[in-house]
Amino acid sequence: MIKGCWSNSSNVKKVIYLAVIVGSVGICFVGIDSSANQRQQRKIEYAKATIENEAVKIKRLDTKIIHFYQDGQEEFLIDPIDMSSVEAVEKDIASLKTTASDFGLKDEDFSIDNSEVSKEKKALVDKISDIKNKQAIQGEISALLVQSPTKWTKENLDIVISEDTTLEKITSISGKITKSEKSWNVSMMALLKEIEMQVTQYNALKQSIDAMIVGEELTTEANLENFISSYNQLELIKNETLRNRLNSKLETIDQLLNEQAMNHEEIPSEEVLPAE
């Protein structure tokens, strides 16, 4: 009888012990769940406050971007432009937090209206891209010239092509410029058109001069008329090095034409006998 009671008492203790354990585990899970909810709520509150602050940052960054342009208009870049400053602004834009994932949240848990700041951030990204694209194209155009333009406007066409400028390079650059009526686009195309004209003039004149001489021998194209025509076109070649190259070849042609004329004068004419 005593043994049975002892056995029942032991079983009761086990049940109580298990109940305590289960209760404790349940309390822990409730606590963990409550803690997770609190952390989630803190993330949402932090996201809301941060996004409000990001809107202020966006306006400040937009002001910095405007300073990369002349006269506060988003067309022509300031010259010179510090690209390290542009990259610094680009880095600040990339650090802006505007989406759920930026805060470690899921989209369905992100009840904050972030559409406006997301749109404004995208606009800043596009503006930086525009600046970098314009600077890169202007750099490529400068490489076609002896000296970079003092101004990048279509009114400033006082430029001189470099010796290695080709029509292929011009075509490659023009393909990167969007066809638009915006001032910058129009000006870049005007500059490229002037560069193309100078290259075409040089190529055409060089071809005409080369057609008159092979090595040190004149061809049938070498005559006084063609020589004078080519010589008169030399002034169209703005690049001094290219002009001197053509002039040197014309001087050789001129010398050979003079020698040819002198040789013709030295040939004795046949004596004409009087008629009987």
Task: Give a brief outline of the structure.
This protein has 276 residues and is mainly α. Helix content is 64%, strand content 1%. It has a two-stranded antiparallel sheet.
**Number of distinct helices:** 7
Coarse shape: rod-shaped
Major sheet strand order: 1-2
* Alpha-beta content class: mainly alpha
**Range of helix content:** 55-70%
Kindly report how far apart the N and C termini lie: 182 Å
Count all strands and give the number. Answer: 2
Main sheet properties: 2 strands, antiparallel
Write down the Rg.
Answer: 41 Å
Average of the residue pLDDT scores: 86
Tell me the series of helices and strands, N- to C-terminal: HHHHHEEHH
Q: Uncertain segments of ≥5 residues (pLDDT<50)?
A: 25-33
- Strand portion, in percent? under 5%
Describe the overall structure.
The radius of gyration is 41 Å and the shape is rod-shaped. With 276 residues, it is an all-alpha fold. It has helices at 2-66, 83-94, 115-142, 167-174, 183-210, 224-232, 240-266, and strands at 213-214, 217-218.
Top keywords for this entry?
276 residues; 2 strands; mainly alpha
Give the arrangement of secondary structure elements:
Layout lengths: L1 H65 L16 H12 L20 H28 L24 H8 L8 H28 L2 E2 L2 E2 L5 H9 L7 H27 L10
